[in-house]
Every structure is written in C-alpha cells, then in structure tokens.
TrEMBL record:
Domain of life: Bacteria
Limits of the Heme NO-binding domain: 2-161
InterPro entries in the cross-refs: H-NOX_domain_sf, Heme_NO-bd, NO_sig/Golgi_transp_ligand-bd
A Pfam entry, by short name: HNOB
Name under which the protein is recorded: Heme NO-binding domain-containing protein
Chain segments annotated as coiled-coil in the UniProt record: none
Length: 181
C-alpha cells in the first residue's frame, strides 16, 4: 500500500481525533520510527490494523470507518493529482475512467502500485454498475471513493453493494443510482 494512502489517513485522523491519537496508533501498529513516504510501499496490514483500531475506539462498524476513509481519500487523492481529475467533466465520465484512465495514470506515476480491477458499465443514464476485484478486498473503500467523487461533481447518488467478497463472492458489485433533477 502506497504511503500516499497512509498520508491521507493521517490527515483524516489528526483532523478528527487529534495528533496524539494518530501517534498512539502509529506506535501500536507500525514499526518504530515509521514515516510514510507517498511514493513508497508499506504493508497493508498496517493500514488494516490502524483502521480496525479506529473502529474499536469509535465503537463503529469497521466497514463504516473504511467507507468514511474512502470518501475522505477521494479528496486527498484529487488534491494531490489535480491534472488527473481535470480530465473528467462529470461523475459518470470519471467512474467510466477509473480503470482505463485514472489507474493507468497511477501506474505511470508510482512504482508497482497495488491497484484493484474495476469494470464500470453504464446500464442507463441513471445507473452505473461497478465490478470490483482485488486481493485486498477494499470494496468499502471503493464505495467511499465513489461517494467522494459524486460529491466532487455535486452529483447525488446511492450505492447498493449487491454482491460482496466479504460474503464469499469472488468480486463485488456496486450498483450506483444517479439522482437527476
Ligand atoms: Mn484508486 C488504490 C478505487 C480514484 C489513485 N483505488 C485504490 C484502492 C481502491 C481504489 C479500492 C485500494 C486498493 C485495492 O482495492 O486493491 N480509486 C478507486 C475508485 C476511484 C479511485 C473507486 C474513483 C471513484 N485512485 C483514484 C484517483 C487516484 C487514485 C482519482 C489518483 C489520481 N488508487 C490510487 C492510488 C492507490 C489507489 C495511488 C494506491 C495504490 C497502492 O497502494 O499501491
Ligand atoms: Zn464488497
């Protein structure tokens, strides 16, 4: 998992729980003197351990914590990669470009990033189906990222997680419903 992901997690936790909490989490779940550098890779078990602990601390379901982080992460990634986001004029075009534009760009910018396979399909002007596959099973993070993207474009959406790897499937399906008015 790239350091940039940990950098955004740090921003969120420091903002919402304070620096002391972040430092405690690091001390507990990362090797001594850990500093996350955006372009370097770190064990994703560190990310999992930190988010797990946040969920325990806040007495929240882990999936809700990961989803909230995904939402925050979109803004963190977007602000660090403005040029990538500027290629899209609306929510639908961004979702259609996750795999073939955004993550292709990420592959050029980072050395061996660990990315999911995302297939997006337009069902109708109001419906996009996103299929998610990754050994990291971070589908709730993907859901949060999609809400972050929707907010970025002022698009109201709902998502139904109709199929999930956490229920034994080999992929997840996120059925996005767009609200137009
Ligand atoms: Mn993208 C990792 C989904 C937009 C750059 N991305 C991930 C992961 C998910 C994901 C889920 C976690 C790894 C995994 O599941 O295997 N990403 C999305 C979705 C959107 C998205 C659903 C839009 C919505 N991602 C973006 C944008 C950028 C970006 C925008 C930057 C321009 N993503 C990354 C990087 C990683 C990542 C960087 C981390 C890769 C690594 O840790 O090695
Ligand atoms: Zn899932």
């Amino acid at each position: 998992m790239k350091g940039i992901i940990f950098n955004v997690l740090e921003d969120m936790i420091v903002e919402q729980c304070g620096m002391v909490v972040w430092n405690d989490l690091l001390k507990k779940h990362a090797p001594p003197e850990r500093v996350y550098i955006s372009a370097k890779s770190y064990a994703e078990t560190e990310l999992m351990a930190i988010t797990n602990d946040v969920a325990l601390m806040l007495n929240m379901p882990l999936q809700d914590v990961v989803k909230a982080f995904g939402h925050y992460l979109f803004n963190g990634l977007a602000s660090r990669h403005v040029g990538v986001i500027k290629r899209f004029e609306d929510f639908t075009s961004l979702v259609m470009g996750i795999h073939d534009v955004i993550h292709v760009e990420v592959n050029k910018l980072y050395h061996e990033p660990a990315l999911p396979t995302i297939i997006s399909r337009i069902i109708s002007p109001e419906q996009i189906e996103v299929t998610y596959r990754s050994p990291r099973k971070m589908c709730f993070c993907a859901e949060g990222l999609l809400f972050g993207a929707a907010q970025h474009f002022g698009q109201n959406i709902t998502i139904v997680h109709t199929v999930c790897m956490h229920n034994g499937a080999d992929h997840c399906i996120l059925a996005i419903e767009l609200q137009h008015d």
